Amino acid sequence: MSTLKEKFIPLTLLDASDEERGNQCVNIAEEFAIGFAEWLPNNAYKESKCWRMYDKKDNEYNIKELLEIYKKEKEL
């Protein structure tokens, strides 16, 4: 699996139009967003104004912290 950064690097080397590179960036972003959206309900739940992970119920998280956990778990 490639990190997000590794997925974007080849786009800078492409001999393609700005529109084509933009479309490829959108595809990478959508793939990432879908992955996070699928991961989130299986790993965390919202309780009042905070998020908790099923395996760490005593800890509170904000959505950015959960995103960082997702990226680390998926090595992105």
Quick overview:
The protein is an alpha+beta fold. The chain has three helices and three strands. Strand 1 and strand 2 (50-53) form a beta hairpin.
Task: Give a structural overview.
The chain has one domain. The protein has 76 residues and is α+β, with helices and mostly antiparallel strands. The protein has a three-stranded antiparallel sheet. The longest helix is centred in the middle third of the chain and has 26 residues. The model has no long low-confidence stretch (mean pLDDT 89). The chain is elongated.
Question: Secondary structure elements and their pairing?
Answer:
Elements lengths: L3 H10 L4 H26 E4 L2 E4 L2 E6 L1 H11 L3
Antiparallel strand pairs: 1-2, 2-3
Beta fraction = 15-25%
Order of helices and strands: HHEEEH
Helix content: 55-70%
Count of helices?
A: 3
Please indicate the count of domains.
1
Tell how many strands the DSSP assignment holds.
3
Distance between the termini: 8 Å
Strand order, largest beta sheet: 1-2-3
**pLDDT < 50 runs, ≥5 residues:** none
Whole-number average pLDDT? 89
Q: Tell me about the biggest sheet?
A: 3 strands, antiparallel
The rounded Rg comes to: 16 Å
Q: Structural class, from secondary structure content?
A: alpha+beta
- Using the alpha-carbon principal axes, give the shape: elongated
Question: Which labels suit this protein?
Answer:
alpha+beta, 3 helices, 62% helix, elongated, 76 residues
